[in-house]
């Protein structure tokens, strides 16, 4: 028998090609279509990064104006999708609502089954526009409130916060949200993007692939890590007790959420940008409790285990200081990452080959069949 090799979790296995992003381990940077992600967070809006992912280049002023105009015109949800969100149980997890909404939106798009490049780009923009609306509507319905209509005068970051609350957010919150949306927009062959590509490789449509990607993101080892990280910080509670809490957790072999990343060996390159806006939020609200506590956890983890935080860690306490309910953290990730997923689906459809890996069989060898009445 030919010897077979196996890499648990497909670690290190090259599963495809992509022009969207790569992690440059030499300079510890995430590169999006040739651009340093950190530089993009300092100089662009999320919409520019979305345009870059979908079209391959940063937009001109005229191109961005047209892109924004189309996005803002597509934000309203079809009435039956609104009714579906209204009818959901109040205790349904927001990620389940988003997954269901994405799937239902396929019913109301005349191009759903058109996998051509241009149709996929148009569908991607509709999903970018409507997913934040679905998140906000679902949240407000769960609180017994009526939904807030999207504001065409606001960008993606500001409009999402506005629809959640019914009032325009302060600029420092918009900036923090914009940075987080950029940082979450795309990250290579991660679990959810790969899920989307596998589904797309069967020539399933973009809505189906994104629905599957949302389901993959819901797991606490992927997008759900930001929710779990904040729950952990709330359990720690007191900065003075943080070091001992981490030591005790490590002694009990508990997983410290928000730490470690398979691709980054010298620290997640997105963390400093998110920590920076987190500190800005703390300064604006006049309370640095959460970033200070997080710093103690981070320092203890580095000293004891040499493990760096990932972007979910500072994002968790930044969202918390903004008053965003914890169950909405991963849905907001969806509002950002949908453009990365869509770009992967487009790339997959444009040069498709069915993704169908092999596996190593670990069951018994061929056994003799015994009729039902003769089995002991």
What is the count of β-strands?
3
Estimated helix fraction: 55-70%
Strand portion: under 5%
Number of domains: 2
The strands making up the biggest β-sheet line up spatially as: 1-2-3
Structural class: mainly alpha
Could you give me the name of the CATH homologous superfamily of the largest domain?
Citrate Synthase, domain 1
| CATH uppermost class of the largest domain | Mainly Alpha
Contiguous uncertain segments of 5+ residues:
none
In CATH, the topology of the largest domain is named: Citrate Synthase, domain 1
Biggest sheet, open or closed, and with what strands and sense? 3 strands, antiparallel
Overall 3D form: globular
Count of DSSP-assigned helices = 16
Cα gyration radius (Å)? 22 Å
Question: What is the H-and-E element order?
Answer: EEEHHHHHHHHHHHHHHHH
Task: Quote the distance from N terminus to C terminus.
Answer: 33 Å
The CATH architecture of the largest domain can be given as Orthogonal Bundle
Brief synopsis:
This protein has 376 residues and is mostly helical. Helices cover 57% and strands 3% of the residues.
Description:
By secondary structure, the chain is mainly α. It has two domains: 17-219 and 327-350, Citrate Synthase, domain 1 (Orthogonal Bundle); 225-321, Cytochrome p450-Terp, domain 2 (Orthogonal Bundle). Helix content is 57%, strand content 3%. The protein contains 16 helices and three strands. The protein has a three-stranded antiparallel beta sheet. A hairpin with a 2-residue loop joins strand 2 (29-32) and strand 3 (35-36). Helix 12 (239-251) runs parallel beside helix 14 (289-305). The longest helix is centred in the middle third of the chain and has 26 residues, at 117-142. The chain is globular, with a radius of gyration of 22 Å. The mean pLDDT is 94.
